[in-house]
């Protein structure tokens, strides 16, 4: 093509038609040649949104390109995930994935995508949950809670930010391994559930560490234990559920970057490398830990193995508790 013909051809290409050229440039090693869209599939202000904005800021520095957080909330994180699954596989739309997406594969029977078919990019880390009770409940530790539940079956209620969420399944797992019974009260998010926990309308709640900290430190609610196998550096004096008499109980939120199926390997490598560099930046890691999160890292296979094991694990819990979201 002559130079004048090439320039003439370009003049007919609208801004919306540049996406294929961006994909070509990305695959050829020029990635990222345009801003990257990081889809946070939960509402602004929550743990996913907070962490996604920290990650986007650091990735922008590492990639020398804007990384823009887009909140696409709804249906337990599946609306945002579906949007990414359908996006052009060029690395310019990626998902801030979470444990909720492993659970969704079981509890949503008509899910239009499969998270296992998306491309794992980077494991971003874990966030502990805290077993909280209302101050109006006369229990001071996990053993006392179990004893109270067994003496009062189905008389206490636990909340969750929605049916089929990780909070919901953590509580069901706790019930199963302790042989206790509680009623489930689903809410539209954690904020209204925590309001009712403080008032005593519900009595038990499994909340993420970043959201729980302010309420625990203010004394608005009582923390009994953390859900992970190790104690949290955010609340180092708080025991784990496992060391409180429930052997092998270990559950936490986890987060990872996912790209649409078919994303070129060089793009995945570039994103993974940027994440790896972020997690050796002491200032960033300190910000991350201040939110109650433990840093991630590793190659994409780390995230792939975690995802597959979590799908299997929570599928069993959801099946045993007969949890489905129609």
Automatic annotation (TrEMBL):
Pfam families: TctC
Gene3D superfamilies, sorted: Bordetella uptake gene, domain 1, Periplasmic binding protein-like II
Family, as annotated: Belongs to the UPF0065 (bug) family.
Protein name per UniProt: MFS transporter
Natural source organism: Cupriavidus nantongensis
